[in-house]
Amino acid sequence: MSETFTAGELERYARHIIMREIGGPGQRRLQGAKVLVVGAGGLGSPALIYLAAAGVGTIGIVDDDVVSLSNLQRQIIHATARVGAPKVESAKGAMHALNPHVVVRAHRTRVTEENAEALIKPYRLIIDGSDNIETRYILNRACVARGATLISAAITQWEGQVSVFKPWEDEPCYACVFPEPPREGQALSCAAGGVLGPLAGVMGSMIAVEAIKDIALAGRPLKGRLLVYNALDGESRTFEVEKRKGCPVCDVKRNPRAAVG
Ligand SMILES: [Zn+2]
To answer: What is the count of structural domains for the chain?
Structure first.
């Protein structure tokens, strides 16, 4: 991590550096941070763009998909000219166009039980912007075993939710809050139920906010709380969520692999 900023970096990050809660030390922490974003879709688009703009030193992207025309209503990191291109490469190009100083690692793959641990290993902060429940559970288990912070968000139609999971701080993990996957037909995918474009922007930006707070040690993290935003009603509510005794993932008595800090 460099001790001083170049003149260009000072100017680029001036609006963060001037803030008391971030300042020079927070900006240096951002430069030294390694963040993995799973999913370069609706949630990943604003999260990746804002993390790159903020100067997060190393940003990994996991996605095995290619850009399609129906993505562009909300996945604003991509572009019409890049339809058919791998999302990780399309996102990487957009991020470097905004900020050439950040290192972007493209992982063109899906998160599986087999590769999750190796994928997240180089990163301390993992962002889940994936579009399926199976990936969410796999990532949660890998983060608990590794002791990595997980920021998880989800959107469907007009509603979004976001939370930060640090189960070793006596806070819940993802599986504490969502012990069971939604039943068939209970949760609509974006393809089946639709999703409001800018809702992805709102929730994906909240992911980036929580990530920057976590890295720069600013403010009060959204851990032990679940924020739900209903765009149709123009309302957001924050619910307290608790660690579940006997959680098969993060309760050390049930799972000896659960990291204790
Ligand atoms: Zn748990």
So the answer is: 1
Residue 247: inside a domain: no
Residue 27 lies in a domain: no
The candidate with the shortest Cα–Cα distance to 25, out of 16, 12, 35, is 16
139-184 per-position pLDDT tens digit: 999 999 999 999 999 999 999 999 999 999 999 999 999 998 877 6
Give residue-wise pLDDT tens across range 64-77: 999 999 999 999 99
Q: What is the Cα–Cα distance from 146 to 226, expressed in whole angstroms?
A: 22
pTM value is 0.95
The Å distance, Cα 246 to ligand 1 centre, comes to 8
The CATH number of residue 141's host domain is 3.40.50.720
Whole-number Å distance, alpha carbon 125 to ligand 1 midpoint, is 17
Is 8 inside a domain boundary?
no
Q: What is the DSSP letter of 132?
A: -
